[in-house]
Amino acid sequence: MDHAFFRHALTLLAGLSFSGFAATSPALAETPFLDKVPAGTVLRIGDPVTQKVLEASGLIDQLDFKVEWANLSGGPQTSEAFRAKALDIGSVAEIPSIHATWTNLPVRNIAYRERLDTIAHPIYRFGVTPALGGEIKSLADFRGRRIAYSPGQAQGALVLRALEAAGLTRKDVTLVELPSTGDVYPVALAAGQVDIAPLGGPNIARYIEQYGKDGAALVEHKLRDDPSHLWAPQWVLDDPAKAAAAAEYVKLWAKATEWVNDHPEEFIQAYYVKDQNLTPEQGRAAVAQTGIQVVPASWDEVIARHTKTIALLAEATGNRPFSAEEIFDRRFEKLGAGALAPGSSALKTQEVTQK
């Protein structure tokens, strides 16, 4: 774990003045993409899962520009790299673009996908510390407990939604600020540092496999938690060459989503087994948990939901509420879906209204 990085991230969270800074203008210039990515263009991308998918599927051969891959993703790591001008595109969930706006980092979401049945296939489940596995079985049981909380990440927003759904407030629990990267949350649960923490990805299976015999348990939240984005700093999108390359990457990202839907066993071997060191059985469990992922041709619904999330977080943190239109670059809106053929497993055909 990079302790210096996490100390710096927590310092940013604690010390920045949330004065309602608008990271970007509400309207982007209607600048069309270049017809062709200029020779010599380089994109630095932090999207490790898609990288492995592109390599395994052969889609990586369709890249007509150079990519320098960074083995990082998620809000804290990618936003820190953006601030250092060391990264052009990152893979994140719903919250980082909101938090970045409140901390004076101008960014835009440039791609979006979701799970076909998000309630049946949540990204996160709440892990329960082994000592309390038999006591905490529902969201209502969160009262009086210590909950891992990451203000600038999707897991933090999920904690707030879970409390709201259970009729609880922040005063009814103890929120323990911890970054949710890597294995921080499973380790904190196992050590009894917190009672409850949202777990995602391989950490779900690993946590139960390692500590289930000691009493560790999971709690389902039955809330929508599935937004997945590519995002980029505004200065990258203002560069015509990099913007054109980003547009091409979004198209391949959508095709990679389709490939995972259609080739689950190959994906399990390429990513979960070879890269994440899981067993094939653990990989299959992770794929089953994810379900089918789809790319919509319209962002209207996600922007409306995103705006509601901003309002929830603004109330909890004292920051300025704003419209999510400020943090989506609509020039990219139809690129992902447009790269997919009619009938594609990754093409969203109807809007889901789950909250």
TrEMBL record:
Pfam families: NMT1 (PF09084)
Domain SsuA/THI5-like: 97-218
UniProt keyword annotation of Ribonucleoprotein present: no
Signal peptide: 1-22
Transmembrane listed as a keyword: no
Record keywords: Plasmid, Signal
InterPro entries for the chain: SsuA/THI5
Protein name in UniProt: ABC-type nitrate/sulfonate/bicarbonate transport systems, periplasmic component
Source organism: Paracoccus aminophilus JCM 7686
Lineage, top ranks: Bacteria, Pseudomonadati, Pseudomonadota, Alphaproteobacteria, Rhodobacterales
